[in-house]
Amino acid sequence: MVKAVLSVILLAVLWVIPAHADMNPEDSAELKAVIRQVLKDNPDLLFEALQGHEERLYDLLQVGLEKKNKAKIRAGRLRQLKNPKVAALHPERPVWGNPDGDISIIVFSDFQSATCSRADGTVIKLLGAHPEISYRFRHNPLGLHKMSRQVALYYEAIALQNHDKAKRFNHMALTERLKIKKNGTSELDRLAASCGVDMARLRKELAGKKVAETVDGDIREARKLGFTASPVFLVNGVTVTGAAPLEEFEEVIDMIRSGK
Q1: For residue range 72-82, what is the model confidence (pLDDT) as tens digits?
Q2: Can you give the pTM of this predicted structure?
């Protein structure tokens, strides 16, 4: 009976303290000391007091963890501002947006990854909102999907013909990744033809060494940068991983431009 009463009192105090934050500092300190000692002597009281409030406690814990993780990620990005990761620009390869923009985004991606496919939708929105930035696509196939490398080769072969057609193929390949997984190179041929690609020249480029060397070079660079997952975005050397929301990219861009 005593424990039950104490539990009710404890729960009431825990919920009331935040609402009376303006109480006398001495009284507040004394009350906290009493609560601390009660919990130390009777730790089971806390669990009894919280029974029936599990969902609210879970929500509070989730909010706390999210804030902690965001703070940790932000602190890491602030450190990266002073020591950014540098990737090669390769100006001869396709660039979306303004090649000379103050914000440069380079993604290391896998055409057959579901996460990379989702992230591409965010990239399209980001480029629509910020036509002044530059965006470059690099390869980091993870070996989980048998068609990843083949799609990368097609993209680079098309880029040797025409950058605009390559960029169109890029988005289409990420959107139609499941069809590519199912139908293989026949689907890649269909997508390439729909982009107006010279198919005879495409076959010639695919048989050459240049496109393979380009893809392999990207993979080596990804490993050198320490990227073991895809996609990873470098925003002026600051990393954003996975299918991050548009708001996260906006926050990083603001951070870079403000220098804070």
Answers
A1: 888 889 898 89
A2: 0.73
